[in-house]
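Re: [ENG-882] Designed sequences occasionally contain unexpected residues at chain ends

Forwarding the minimal case from QA. Structure tokens:
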């Protein structure tokens, strides 16, 4: 497509609201003029023709001519008025939400579905959109069946009216045949397109209003007259039209529910309300035509409000005049009583047939537009793919054919009143979704939600949702429950299809709004050790060699904050733009692929040390900031490439939700060759990072050999032996410090205990090693004290006694007198630890490592003398060499509590 194409220009114009700051500041010559954008020739309908006319006709439909008597006859005037007010309150609340959403941006084809999906996201939008589509399909069936009923009432052999016109045979098959013919006529009109429909509907609109004028005139002009009603089976009723009579009004005031002569079912308030509410469900008829409107954001609210007010006035007047003038028998036994009392009966027939035909066409064409929009969004895959097909003029004729086929199935129900309940429930569900969409936008407080229509609030939205659900369950609890179950199934189907969209997710806006509020409430001054949890910053150089560690630390977080940190080396002053920002998508896709619950924080810095300092200071927000730094161990080992080993990284080539496929992910994180991970980090700088973190009062963990960790193999059924998590709570570089219950040791115990609480590690058992010397007479007391502590801390663990006389004898403090130890402690602590002693410690740990899955060791504090940093790192390397997955931990904060 060339850059000068009208479609591209239109898209550029449509996206102006979301243009970035870089676009504005970085390209001053780029301008978009509305004058060069050609108008969409397919959008020709004005407010009156595109919204008012179809909405009024849909809201009148068959109800205004064929169900006024049904409602008043069974429910009485007072309950009928209550039904009317409740129905219009519900739809008015929804109309307010529709007006707010439609004036908040450009509305395209699909009407209510477009509004819901672009607000609530594809899952809710697709499920509610399909249900709204089905509501229109059922409604079309209702209108066609109503028209059949009206025709047979005059021309059928079992018609209620008297005369010689009853020539049409009546049976289930013939009724279905008549409905099929009528529906086929509607299909032909809708296949031509929306323009001919709007012209036909305007002519029908004039006819309907003319008929209504004759009805109002008849109430005044026609005097008292007798009416004879003959039903099938030669059942005859003699009743009368009394004219304005206060006695008639008194008799019609209260409810008198009986059997419906069309279905022979007993009527109730819920059933009558469901039938009457069908006359109000057409408020979306104008919205459904949004793809054909010249200015949908202006036309939808204005036209819908006009139609709602107009139809309410007409319904109220008809209710009132009917209650004053018609006997109850007339209303119950002849739903087409307007014909019997009109100045000229055929006027009413014209109105009934025209409004029913118009409503049928309106719902058929509206439903097809919804289906077309669903198909274009590709939410249901190949099932709806053919519905994308359109004619040269843009008419979605295949969606019309789809809808026609479904309505044919609905006609099998046979009677209007039989399916009125399910239509009403589906419409109420769609209305509740529109209110929910508006409520979510209002509660999210997004700056871009600024509709020009302001006559609404979150109170009206919430009231609309509640009223819709209450009425759903009042009308038919089974239908209501079924519709909710259907919505949940559809929602789950779309979610598991991993449908992506660029519409924006209201859930993200709501989450942001709530998280901000609760972060403000999360006061760090109110922290208590009872509720401590690890909040971890894991520094990652190359995830290709760190994925096992990333997964392991995810197990350790215990619902706490988990952040993957990475430092890009560079100076922003020498760069045209920040190189870090484009990398976030790849890191977030990595998090999804590895399936961990972690945030990502990247920074640009001249050195890894400075970058780590930045992340430790600024990562997190409020009370959610890292309290523990985790680093991979500094050594020369070359771990295997996880991307090449894991099938998830080698088999699937599909893009994720945000367009990053496996190939792109692998290319972004290049293979780590020998030494590559440490080119920008010296051993001294590595130890300095540990020292910096301790100075900043952060707990520190060094992870070694975690590329060897394979949980599936560890806990597979092929491994008969139990696996252990080993804890060595003694500072092995300072055996002269014999405390097992200092803060750091307790931190080790807590972290190991957290690991055993994870479901995938529940098969592992905790094992604590207590090192003793032969001359130490207090080791039994130490063991008892440790057991007592474990009991108070509710930690289940096995204590193993390890004699280590031969090892500790090699430590420097055993080779000096007490006076020499005290005199040379500061200078000799690190410098005089021999490699022989370290290898002995390493061998001791290895010999105790039967079936060990992972080890937790005490990490000594780095020496104060920076010249000893490399020697300190060398000591740690010797002590942990070939130990397998090992976590060296230095804890600074109290993390255990024995109080309730």
């Amino acid at each position: 497509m060339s850059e000068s194409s009208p479609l591209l220009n239109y898209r550029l114009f449509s996206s102006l609201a979301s243009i970035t700051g870089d676009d504005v500041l970085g390209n001053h010559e780029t301008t978009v003029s509305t004058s060069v954008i050609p108008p969409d020739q397919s959008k020709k309908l004005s407010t009156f023709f595109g919204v008012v006319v179809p909405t009024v006709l849909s809201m009148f439909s068959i109800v205004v001519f064929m169900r006024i008597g049904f409602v008043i006859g069974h429910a009485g005037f007072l309950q009928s008025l209550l039904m009317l007010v409740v129905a219009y309150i519900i739809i008015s609340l929804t109309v307010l939400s529709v007006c707010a959403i439609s004036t908040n941006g450009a509305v395209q084809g699909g009407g209510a579905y477009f509004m819901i999906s672009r607000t609530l996201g594809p899952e809710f939008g697709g499920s509610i959109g399909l249900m709204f589509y089905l509501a229109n399909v059922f409604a079309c069936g209702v209108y066609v069946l109503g028209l059949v009923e009206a025709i047979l009432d005059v021309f059928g052999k079992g018609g209620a009216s008297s005369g010689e016109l009853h020539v049409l045979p009546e049976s289930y098959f013939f009724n279905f045949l008549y409905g099929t013919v009528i529906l086929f006529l509607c299909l032909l009109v809708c296949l031509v397109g929306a323009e001919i429909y709007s012209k036909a509907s305007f002519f029908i609109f004039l006819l309907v209003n003319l008929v209504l004028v004759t009805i109002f005139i008849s109430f005044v002009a026609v005097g008292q007259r007798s009416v004879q009603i003959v039903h099938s089976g030669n059942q005859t009723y003699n009743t009368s039209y009394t004219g304005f009579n206060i006695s008639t009004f008194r008799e019609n005031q209260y409810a008198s529910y009986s059997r419906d002569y069309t279905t022979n079912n007993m009527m109730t308030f819920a059933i009558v309300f469901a039938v009457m509410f069908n006359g109000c469900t057409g408020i979306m008829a104008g919205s459904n035509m949004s793809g054909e409107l010249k200015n949908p954001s202006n036309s939808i609210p204005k036209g819908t409000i006009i139609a709602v007010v107009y139809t309410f006035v007409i319904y109220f007047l008809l209710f009132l005049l009917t209650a004053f003038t018609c006997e109850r028998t007339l209303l119950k036994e002849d739903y087409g009583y307007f014909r019997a009392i009109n100045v000229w009966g055929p006027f009413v027939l014209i109105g009934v047939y025209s409004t029913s035909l118009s409503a049928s066409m309106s719902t058929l064409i509206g439903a097809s537009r919804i289906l077309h929009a669903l198909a274009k969004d590709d939410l249901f895959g190949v099932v709806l793919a053919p519905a994308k097909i359109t004619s040269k003029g843009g008419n979605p004729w295949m969606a019309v054919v789809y809808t026609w086929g479904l309505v044919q199935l609905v006609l099998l129900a046979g009677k209007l009143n039989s399916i009125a309940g399910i239509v009403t429930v589906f419409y109420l569900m769609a209305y509740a979704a529109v209110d929910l969409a508006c409520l979510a936008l209002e509660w999210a407080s997004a700056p871009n939600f600024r509709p020009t229509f302001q006559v609404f609030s979150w109170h009206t939205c919430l009231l609309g949702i509640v009223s819709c659900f209450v009425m759903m369950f009042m009308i038919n609890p089974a239908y209501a429950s079924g519709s909710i179950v259907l919505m949940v199934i559809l929602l789950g189907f779309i979610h598991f299809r991993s449908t992506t969209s660029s519409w924006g997710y209201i859930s993200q806006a709501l989450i942001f709004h709530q998280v901000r509020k609760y972060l403000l409430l999360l006061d760090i001054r109110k922290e208590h050790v009872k509720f401590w949890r690890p909040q971890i910053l894991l520094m990652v150089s190359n995830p290709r060699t760190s994925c096992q560690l990333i997964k392991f630390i995810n197990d350790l977080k215990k619902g706490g904050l988990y952040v993957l940190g990475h430092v890009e080396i560079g100076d922003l002053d020498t760069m045209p733009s920040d190189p870090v920002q484009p990398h976030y998508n790849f890191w977030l896709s990595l998090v999804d692929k590895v399936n961990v619950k972690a945030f990502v924080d990247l920074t640009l810095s001249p050195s890894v040390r400075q970058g780590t300092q930045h992340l430790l200071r600024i990562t997190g927000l409020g009370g959610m900031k890292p309290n523990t730094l985790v680093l991979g161990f500094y050594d020369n080992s070359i771990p295997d490439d996880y991307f090449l080993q894991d099938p998830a990284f080698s088999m699937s080539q599909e893009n994720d939700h945000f367009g990053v496929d496996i190939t792109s992910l692998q290319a972004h994180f290049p293979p780590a060759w020998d030494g590559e991970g440490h080119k920008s980090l010296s051993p001294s700088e590595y130890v300095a990072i540990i020292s910096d973190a301790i100075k900043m009062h952060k707990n520190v963990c060094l992870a070694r050999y975690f590329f060897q960790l394979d949980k599936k193999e560890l806990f597979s059924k092929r491994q008969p032996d139990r696996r252990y998590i080993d804890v060595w709570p003694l500072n092995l570089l300072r055996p002269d410090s014999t405390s097992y219950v200092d803060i750091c040791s307790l931190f080790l115990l807590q972290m190991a205990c957290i690991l055993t609480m994870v479901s995938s590690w529940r098969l592992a058992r905790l094992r604590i090693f207590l090192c003793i010397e032969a001359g130490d007479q207090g080791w039994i007391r130490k063991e008892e004290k440790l057991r007592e502590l474990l009991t108070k801390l509710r930690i289940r663990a096995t204590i193993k006694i390890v004699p280590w006389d031969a090892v500790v004898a090699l430590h420097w403090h055993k080779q000096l007198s007490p006076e020499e130890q005290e005199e040379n402690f500061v200078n000799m602590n690190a410098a005089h630890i021999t490699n022989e002693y370290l290898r002995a410690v390493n061998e001791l740990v290895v010999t105790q490592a039967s079936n060990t899955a992972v080890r937790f060791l005490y990490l000594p504090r780095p020496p104060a003398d920076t010249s000893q940093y490399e020697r300190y790192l060398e000591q740690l390397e010797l002590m942990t060499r070939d130990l397998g997955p090992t976590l060296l931990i230095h804890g600074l904060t109290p993390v255990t509590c024995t109080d309730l």
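QA comment: On inspection the terminal residues look reasonable. Confidence is low (pLDDT under 50) at residues 1-41, 674-678. Proposing we downgrade this to a documentation issue.
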